[in-house]
Amino acid sequence: MPIDREKYTHNYLDETKEHLAVIDEGAISLEKNPGDTTAINTVLRALHAIKGSSRMLGFSNMEQSAHAMENVFKGLKEERYEFGSSLLQLIMLGGEIIRKGITAISSGGEDSIKVNRFVDACGKAADNEPFGDDLGNIRKEIRASSSPVQASDSPNKAEGYETIRVNLSDIEEITASLNNVIISQFQLKQFQERIGEIQQSYNNLGNTTKNTSFEKTRKEMQNFKKDFVEQMAVVEQNSYKLQEQIMRLSMLPIDLVLSELPRMVAETSTMLEKEIDLTITGSGILMDKAILEKLNDPLIHIVRNAVDHAIETAEERQKKGKDRRGAIEIVCSSEGGNITIRIRDDGKGIDHDQIVQRAVERGLVEKDEVDELSETDVYALIFKPGFSSRDEVSDLSGRGVGLDIVKVNIESVKGKVTVQSTPGEGSEFILAVPLSLATVSGFFVRSGGEKFLIPSNFVHKIVRIQREDIISYLNKEAFRLEQQIIPLYSLSSLLVKRGAGTTGKDLIYVVVVESMGERIGIIVDMVLQHVSLIYKPVPKNTSKLKPVQGIVFDENYRIINILFIPELMSRFRRLKSIDLVKEDLDEYQHVPVVLVVDDSKNTREIEESILALEGYSVKTARDGIEALEVLRTTRIDLIVSDLDMPRMDGITMIENLRKNAEFGDTPVVVVTASDDDETVKKAHAAGAQEHIVKSDFNRNSLIKIAQKLLQEKSTIV
After folding, report:
1. pLDDT tens-digit profile of 81-139?
2. How far apart, in whole angstroms, are the C-alpha atoms of residue 332 and residue 256?
3. What is the C-alpha separation between 141 and 114, in angstroms, rounded?
4. What is the DSSP letter of 114?
5. Residue 111 located in a structural domain
6. What's the number of domains the chain is made of?
7. Fewest 10 Å CB contacts: which of 295, 483, 640, 652?
8. Parallel, antiparallel, or unpaired for β 638-641 and 668-672?
């Protein structure tokens, strides 16, 4: 299966431009100092990276150009000739050809450039043969192939960048907060010195300590502890304030998506001959731009539905004793790192019977299941793909799409939707989303020896119950809370090892979570603490990890999975009891972790995406040294590595790896641009199990080898 070039082209072009700058700088340095081996090696790495990335993406002309220049610099490295003015001209022409290739790829997607004469000239140079007469022809060919537009236009560096306006006062506040943090750090260092002094005092006391000396030291310790606690509180406060101020720089007011609604309501209500007032409060609240973009369609959809379906005509409202003018109210509020948007109307309310009837007609629910549907289940039906309360598609409301777009968009930004309705009085849609995708607030919990984060926007309440409080309800275990019966499920039954759980414990921790108006209780071993941390997304297209929405690092810099509650609740519904373990549990016991090592960012991203698509967890490193650092702190099941890298190359890294008994059986796949047999033999001799030449690289080749090696490793274990 070929690589999807379009997905990686942007990064490839940016990376190639950076490498060209390195090549230019190195060539100029060599003109001044022909024997500069550092410059030669630096240029070789840059050319090697261009060649490898070009080969993986199928840009053969770019690859040939880089490879030809690489051969020239290999001759310099081997001291077969010296760098002179002719070579400088040749290399500069090569840079110009590659830049033309960048322009061609940017405009047409292909590297449609002429390279044959240049490649031939480089071949002569590498063989130490005269090539000076070829330079003029190459230069003419470059100039002739440049259209007037290509020759005169320079790229607009502002294109492709999104900007926001930042007030100077915001920058000043951030600077002040940062200074406070730095000052606090200095004070903490002083406290650290005092700890050492006090500890030394204790050591000097020995067994002959007099009571007065011991009491003095004890008081010093007490005072120090008090000062330290106070200072830590200041540091935490300043750090949180600084984090909040930085986040605000990338935020925009909700009004950007709400400001168009009054016009839309006025136009639509006029078309439908209805009288409707729209009021909006809290529109000045700031939120993450990425979340704001996802809110646009759901808000428009819900409001259009209210205008079209919910609000009655003036005559109908008067007959019901209502005010002639219908009302839609949007209220935005922010609390605890979450934003809540309530869209209320005073219309008909949701007709349960009609919803169920339409769902049965469209095959969204079976007739024999109707009697078991709760109010929450009925509300959930309107968000199902394909549901519509009308037979014909109109230009208003959902336009045949349905409310599923609301659920999809809100859940894509890790939010939740709740519906409340009273027949004849109106409905309320409640959208709860995080303030920012950059951070997540939630509760660290422990279950079966594993640690997880449950986002606070899904948490209704945390309680501790006695085992005797558990009751049987609809063949499931549950407990009573706030005059509701809450089904109980054990987190360990889905996400941790078989046999882990709370069996036998008298006091049970339960996290009551809510999504789409439904509440369940999740049993955990312990609720540890509430935190607000930097959010890291899971790799894209990791379909097998749907219950995990991202990761955070805890206080010990360990990776902690963030649970995605809507998906978790969906999977819990398939369990028959809190102790039942599904047959597909093995999927969650351990996700293989693959370490990708390559100094090319573009190559790392390609390989990371391919592996993540298969459901592997992927770590990355830029060279051998960085890879060894990752291995010291993270369990790695497979390594995919380049060979030619700065600081520490792939072969040296593998040799270091095999010297450590802990990593002696960690399989290694070498992905290299070189098809030289000697290089491949060296890699295998160092301890690599498999190799892939980049010219033969594709998704299937990498995945097949990864699956094979991981299977062999698991068999050995």
Report:
1. 999 878 888 998 898 899 899 989 988 888 888 899 999 999 999 999 999 888 888 88
2. 13
3. 8
4. -
5. yes
6. 5
7. 483
8. parallel
